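User: Can you predict the 3D structure for this chain?
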Amino acid sequence: MPFLCNWIKNCIYPDLSNTTNPQQGDALIGFKQPVVNAIPRTVHDKLSETISVKDFGAVGDGINDDTAAIQAAINSVPQTFGIEGGTVFFPAGVYEVTSEILISGIRITLQGVGRYATHIRFKPTSDNQTMFKFDRGNAGLSWQCAIQDMALVSSLDSGLTKTAIELKDTSNMIVKDLIIAPWTGNGNSVGLRIRGREAGHINNLHIYADRPIVIEKNDANPINDIDMFNFNDLYLLVSELDETRYPDKSLRPCIFIEDGVDLQNVVFGGFQAWVRGSHGLYWKDTTTTEVSYGLILSNIRTEQTINPIGHSIHVERNALLQDLLIEHMVTDPGQHGFFFRNIARITLNHVSYNGNGVALDVDSKKVNNMSNDPMVELNLDQVKMGIHSTVNMPNMQEKIAFNRSESASPVPDTAYFARKVDSIEQALKLFGSTHVWSYSGELADSDQLTIPSYTRKAAIIFVSGYGSGPISAGGQVIDTAEKVYLISGTEKFGIKNSGDNLDVSGKLVVFHQSNTTIYNRLGVTIDVVVFIMWT
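Assistant: Here is the predicted structure, written as structure tokens:
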């Protein structure tokens, strides 16, 4: 037996414990999955599939500085053409980082084992440092990288400004399942900073920071700042600061979009909790020259604001923003609701503001008229505003625009807004004292359409009829004495009051008696659209 023990100790153990010769150590131990058709391999082959930061000397005890080991692990990911990329694994532990970690390759994933199992703690020694920076510099786009399943923490207000994650000129980037908290310092520390470019997937983040999300210009590609980004399931909490050191609370929103940013097709969805910000989303732009389009904000609640004169949503553009959709949102009653400037086509759908401030502030004025679209088209559907709130809509007017399809018909360069009725029977929506009713459908030759009775001081009726081509279009104004006046351009209408003897053949007739009735005397079946406003 002593002979056998000595043989193992002197002959076998040195080979198995060898870490320098690739033909020894774990290369001498076999491995085979216990499933059909699996092939035998060595433990060395199996373990080589994963790169761990501990393979490069990271300790993860919260005491030792693991910065160099983490950077070495990331730098070891293959970048040879055809086999670029891999996963850097962070086992459970607390990893101390004291300076920037740069991810300059492509298809690199930083993978933890859970948001409360893998902790990366940032303790920089100088100001304006970033912990994880994805940036290829002059090499081009940072392709298909990811960071997920870990917590990024920093000391509470160390007096140093810092950023947890910066994405610079990235494409198909994934940031998900992260805790970034606490992340404070100098009142200006950032949880997630985005500086371009496209196809970002930001999912399931909890950020407690001075400035949770900041979107900035992409200096690597100035015409593509943020394009096709999806932000889902975010809990964004603005940090509490010492008011004696940081008295200014006017501009610390949950989401800040920098002046000059061009945006295309950006969506905030899933659930969105935006807490304690000076604003929920703040975007004040004074410098852009390109049109931005497609911003969707969905399933949002703003609350516990630090700035009662801020707005839950503030979007103010220099160049035009086309298509802003806000839906299923409950706003913080402790501040104002919505502030919009230079936006064409705004839709608010199932939105609630229960405060006493300005629920809606929107101006039709275009600072930069770069489109033939209406200055502002504001569509409100199921919008609830507090009974003591106010609405500021200078230059807006309630109307409906019937835009024909032929190119010769211009789109009116005027602002308008509309509210959607639930049914024809309901027939009533109020903007101040103005009532609205509308109808669309087929009207056969010699048939008539009777309008539901309405009490009025004055009314405006717009009618548009279509057969094989446009038949007639225009409107009429009616006063309390039932006197009818033509609006300019309505000469094709027959107008018939009680007692009139007019030739109405070949015309679309609006007849006013106890009820308003529309008769089709055109000789053909037409599609008719009727819109009435009255006071």
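The helical segments are 2-16, 43-47, 67-75. The first strand starts at residue 30 and ends at 31.
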